[in-house]
Amino acid sequence: MSSQHEPQDEPFSHESLMTGHRRGDSSANLLQSESVPLGEDHDHSYGDGFYDHAGPSNATLYDDPERVSLDKEGGAGGAKNYENFEYADDDIYNEARARPVQEKATPFSRFLRNAGVGQRPLNQRIDEKKRGIGRQRYPFVSWTLAVVMLAVLIYELVLNSKNQGTPISFHPVVNPMLGPSQSALINAGARYPPCMKDVAGLPLSTRFPCLNDTANPPDQLCSLEDVCGFGGFHGKDPDQWFRFITPIFLHAGIIHFLLNMLAQLTASAEVEKEMGSIGFIILYLAAGIFGNVLGGNFALVAAPSIGASGAIFGTVAVAWVDLVAHWQYQYRPVRKLVFMVVELVVGIAIGYIPYVDNFAHIGGFLMGLLVGVVLYPVISTTKRHRIVVWAFRLAAIPLAIVLFVVLIRNFYKSDPYAACSWCRYLSCFPTSSNNHCQGTGFTTNTTGTSI
Fold first, then answer.
1. 160, 181, 196, 233 — which has fewest CB within 10 A?
2. Hey, which residues does 209 pair with through a beta bridge?
3. How far apart, in Å, are the Cα atoms of 394 and each of 374, 398, 399, 400?
């Protein structure tokens, strides 16, 4: 209830604001009529909700000693009153100030993000997955590897041309991949167990066709060290362990190179954009090396093996991980599954072509699955799904290590075939020319040559 002595607000009148202003007055006249001589007190109170025109002071309008005191402290223009102003929405302002500044991602943080740690918002990741947007725009590693492999292929062709007169081998046998001779491929770094360890039934004194030999049967023979190259052996026994790695960068010929690069610059490149370059290079090398380890155990000893197929099959395996983990986000997943099955069957069939090792394909695919489970960024929408994913990751790491250790140890045994006598047929189609995939694959003629 209001007191009878309390002053009442007067009704607002527009005419009072326009007193003395006539129609047609210029802007200058209006400004002049509103101006205040220097030194006069022209106090506007902003806190009252309207502008107080030059006239009665706030003390006259409101009989409030406390307000008068505040007006006097504010001085001319009420400068101190500005200090008491607050934003209309303090919560938004404070929240914006409290939000941490996003720092530039370091290589380690990007690696963790690629492994599924510290991801972007869930809705954003799902949207990017549906739209086919990866973690990076360009597959730099895939491009770089393609350039390196092209340079190595040119080296192989030059090596064969230097020794046989032509970059492509036509004698003693034709290379169906349009590439160097078998001896040239071994000399360039193919996976060839006789250059890596002692092979049972193959004395170190065995002579092999020289790189420049074109006769059939060969008439120019060289020692194993000469054919293996790389400065020979550091001891009396073959010890070129690096042949588990070098075959990844070699190709049997022009056709082999074009087929692999077609896959690498399309399917593998997409995997790199999804994983990021760091995770991709780990996957690529792990799959390629393990494929050569598996082939070294069970493929025919006499058959040199080269190619990036194992590493590429590792990237194909990651595409399978992606399909299974993100089935609901894939565009036409059934059609994609059918295409991937056909692609896998064709790749296995190519593994029976000379100089191409199917064990590299199988081993690369297997290791690709394990590395893909560990490093591929999987979208988890529930806590249970996240726990399952990490359980698979924790199981895949020791399994991959055990496979490497066990198979490398088995490779250096005198008879690695004993671990799986039928496995050789996964990469060898039995014919009379390869003794129906029996023995080491070497043949001995009257000159004592064996290859």
1. 233
2. 221
3. 8, 7, 9, 11
Q: What's at 388, amino acid-wise?
A: V
Give the H or E element holding residue 122: helix 122-131
Question: Which CA distances in Å does 317 have to 370, 371, 407?
Answer: 9, 9, 20
* Dihedral pair phi/psi, residue 380, rounded to 5°: -115, 120
Helix axes 277-298, 107-114, angle to 10 degrees: 60
**CA 280, CA 290: separation in Å to the nearest integer?**
15
Domain ranges of the chain: 42-100, 128-437
pTM of the model: 0.71
* Per-residue CA distances from 96 to 83, 84, 89, 181 (Å): 21, 21, 11, 69
Q: Which two tokens stand for residue 192?
A: 């060839």
- Per-residue model confidence as pLDDT tens digits over 184-215: 999 999 999 999 999 988 888 889 999 998 88
The CA distance from 303 to 301, in Å, is 6
End-to-end CA distance of the chain: 115
Q: Identity (one letter) of the amino acid at 250?
A: L
CATH code for the structural domain at 128-437: 1.20.1540.10
Cα–chain center distance at 346: 25
pLDDT for 311 beyond 80: yes
* Per-residue pLDDT at 437: 80
DSSP class of residue 221 equals E
DSSP state of 76: G
Task: Output the CA angle 171-177-178, nearest 5 degrees.
Answer: 55
Query: What span, in angstroms and rounded, lies between the C-alpha atoms of 125 and 428?
Result: 44
- Reported as type and span, the H/E element at residue 163 is helix 140-164
Query: What are all long-range contacts of 411-414, with beta carbons under 8 Å and residues at least 24 apart?
Result: 411/193, 411/197, 411/293, 411/296, 411/297, 412/197, 414/198, 414/200
How many Cα neighbours within 13 Å face the side chain of 208? 23
400 near 370, Cβ under 8 Å? Answer: yes
Give the tokens for residue 97: 């100030």
